[in-house]
Amino acid sequence: MRVFIAFEGLCEPFDVHPGQTVYDVKQMIKVYFHIQLSDDKQGRRILELTFAGGVLRDQWVLTDVGITVCSTIKCTVKEETKPALYVFNAVTKERIGIFGGVYLLNERVSRLKTLISLKSGYPVSVYTLRTWQGTEMYNCNCLSDYKLDLGATLRMDVWDGWKEFLKACVTGHKKNVQRYLVSKQEVLRYQERVALYMAAHFGHLELAQWLLNKGVRADEAVGVHPYREWCCETDHPDVGKCAIHAAAEAGRLLVLKAFIAHNVLCLQCRNPVGQTPLRICTSLTHKDCVLYLVMKTWSVVSFPNISLPMSIYIKVKKWLFVAQRHIWRVKKRLVEFKPRVGDTVVVNGFTEPKMTSRGMHGFDHEKGRKETDDSKINTSTKYGTNKVNNNTLTNGNEQKMKLPPIHQTPTNHTRSGNKDASIDDTFENSWTAHVPLPPLVNPGNGRPQKLTDPHAVIILNSSLKSFSKYSGRTPRENAIHCLGLASEFKEKTWLRQLDVARMLAKKSVCSL
């Protein structure tokens, strides 16, 4: 099969076998055009083949993606700079690349945490960094103190019991965020500020609006966890960032509008460096946000008898807010939620670390510890200790109470030669007996006519499980993945893209 390769103004023919992969074609191009490629710690220089608007991957076969005789493939030399460091996010299981070259290794850990916060959207006070060997990294130290090499991978751990909550903040699911909020007031207020900050970064308008209605302020600093309140003045400078700053850094125009409409004081809210949201958007060239902020900053607020520039109105508003807040506290005798004697305090290097990315399962939020034995259910009360063993419940007074036995659902469909069928098989067979599946397309191929046969259902389920086990994706996820890859060939029609997706899905099954 002859194809044409377009490279730097030339178009040369190549004879390719139908079963050759894209990688084999790249090797032929490299030898023919005498191209020097490289792959080291600093970066790499690679060949990239594109066809019909989509980038071809090395493991693909040319005929699988619709390349026919006399097709033209575009070849370019691509130079990539590798990240200086990789950060593994323990919440989302993703690797974040941090660029900066060898000079980044001479920076402090606090500077690295600022870069990670800008990329991940997490406030700096919710996570800590560790080397892959488990050594915790502190803000005041340099990266060179930990003997890191270019391309090294670090681990980003969050507060214990916060994984599910932070996942919900990343996705912007309001119900899940509500579900994982804790009941302790001081920690709850801190969680709400973190959720508003992350909603501003990711642009989750519904979640941000709900938090604003709850009373969370967009111009209030995220701060530190109550366990670290004692050292907030010497902590990372970025703990003074607010949700309005996160929205300005990410260029979220709709979130900016919601924040300013709810509280106009956000216009003059300054970050730890002294920059307003307008200054942040200008430095990051967010054009739409800059136009909106300029219009709001230099607007006029009109009242029945007077009109004030926005800058004067903000100053009056600040003065009124401080006075109203003081009067409200005096009347209601409110007490701020601050750490008290007896509260948990986390000291670097001395106390047990509370940031190990432990999930909510098996973690006690009120006591701040993990249950020592998850296999037994021990509930300590002033009356005694309750223990659950088999079908007997025993309390502190040694009074035994029998629990009702577990009844198994009888079924007529059991495996031949196996009298002790499992409960899962019983439920599976009873389900297939009541819900018949449609027959196969070709009834004469020697296969079961319907999938109501228990053996056919078991074989099908085992095949699907084995595919998910070895590929890492369910069949549905694999189909979506293949459709996404085929949609990159924008110059092809939709039906051609569907054919490519079918072929890729078939090859992914055969490769297993």
Automatic annotation (TrEMBL):
<feature type="compositionally biased region" description="Basic and acidic residues">
    <location>
        <begin position="361"/>
        <end position="376"/>
    </location>
</feature>
<dbReference type="InterPro" id="IPR002110">
    <property type="entry name" value="Ankyrin_rpt"/>
</dbReference>
<feature type="region of interest" description="Disordered">
    <location>
        <begin position="357"/>
        <end position="420"/>
    </location>
</feature>
<feature type="compositionally biased region" description="Low complexity">
    <location>
        <begin position="385"/>
        <end position="397"/>
    </location>
</feature>
<dbReference type="InterPro" id="IPR042788">
    <property type="entry name" value="ANKUB1"/>
</dbReference>
<dbReference type="Pfam" id="PF00023">
    <property type="entry name" value="Ank"/>
</dbReference>
<dbReference type="InterPro" id="IPR029071">
    <property type="entry name" value="Ubiquitin-like_domsf"/>
</dbReference>
<protein>
    <recommendedName>
        <fullName>Protein ANKUB1</fullName>
    </recommendedName>
</protein>
<dbReference type="InterPro" id="IPR036770">
    <property type="entry name" value="Ankyrin_rpt-contain_sf"/>
</dbReference>
